[in-house]
Amino acid sequence: MTTSGSPHDVGYVRAISRQLLLGLDFLHQFATGEYDVFSYRNYKYPRLLQPPEFSPVKWLEGTIKDDSPPKYLTPTQRRRGLLDNANWSTLVARIGDLGGAQWIGHCDEQTVTALGLRAPELVQQDIWDAGIDIWCLGCSLFELATNEPPFPLGVFGLARQEIDNDHNALIDQRLSSNGQRGENFTNYLRARLPNFTVDSVESLASFLLLMLQKSRQRRLSAKDLLQSPFCWMGLSIKTAVNTK
């Protein structure tokens, strides 16, 4: 992702989507969970990331202190606009840092997931499985395309239950069908992708909705998502076969 605020080209989103799905399918097939096959520690990108800057959080005078904010804030280490003009066909995506991963079938520990990327079952503290990866990927690809999170949450000064209530409300608002499957979501996405054609927006929206299903049982697997029309739209049959 870049941090310039500009949405990406549809080819960019499609290329990264295919690569991430291939990696996720590999991880799910082999139930990788207790060792970091693609750990960020195995790769170094000194020119891609800036040194981290830690800024302690300070309370404004007159405010009531509580435990809602973190002790430190760290600005992004990504260099602004680094990939804005990159040729998307040359980009390579890697999945890294599996420190919080678990074996499929043994999902009985607390997950390490950013609040805004939590699947509904995590928000509701319900039974969960590998489907949380699919939901998280859908959220990440939405942000990759639009440079906006699909479910932006306010957290400062809010109790955890208030955050969860807001999260559930946002999910219901974004994904409600309004009488037609995906209509609200498609319109919301279209407003953020003025550079996409109508067909491209609808194709991307349908693709994301396969992942952003509130019921974990209805989310497609990474393997099945790789067969979706969005992933291969615009590619020749020969190219698609070679890529698979």
Task: Describe the overall structure.
- GO terms for molecular function: ATP binding; protein serine/threonine kinase activity.
- It comes from Aspergillus nomiae NRRL (strain ATCC 15546 / NRRL 13137 / CBS 260.88 / M93).
- It is an enzyme of class 2 (transferase).
- Keywords: ATP-binding, Kinase, Nucleotide-binding, Transferase.
- The chain is an all-alpha fold and 244 residues long.
- The chain has a domain at 8-27 and 112-232: Transferase(Phosphotransferase), domain 1.
- It is built from nine helices and two strands, in the order αββαααααααα.
- The protein has helices at residues 10-29, 120-123, 131-146, 160-175, 183-190, 198-211, 222-225, 229-232, 237-243; strands at 55-56, 72-73.
- α5 (183-190) packs across α6.
- It is globular, with a radius of gyration of 19 Å.
Rounded to an integer in angstroms, the radius of gyration calculated over CA atoms is 19 Å
Q: What is the makeup of the main sheet?
A: 2 strands, antiparallel
What does the overall shape look like? globular
| Strand arrangement, major sheet | 1-2
Query: How big a fraction of the residues is strand?
Result: under 5%
Helical content, roughly?
A: 25-40%
DSSP helix count?
Answer: 9
For the termini, the CA-CA separation is 24 Å
Look at the structure and give the CATH class of the domain at 8-27 and 112-232.
Mainly Alpha
Domain Protein kinase: 1-231
Keywords: ATP-binding, Kinase, Nucleotide-binding, Transferase
GO molecular function, one term: ATP binding
InterPro entries: Kinase-like_dom_sf (IPR011009), NEK_Ser/Thr_kinase (IPR050660), Prot_kinase_dom (IPR000719)
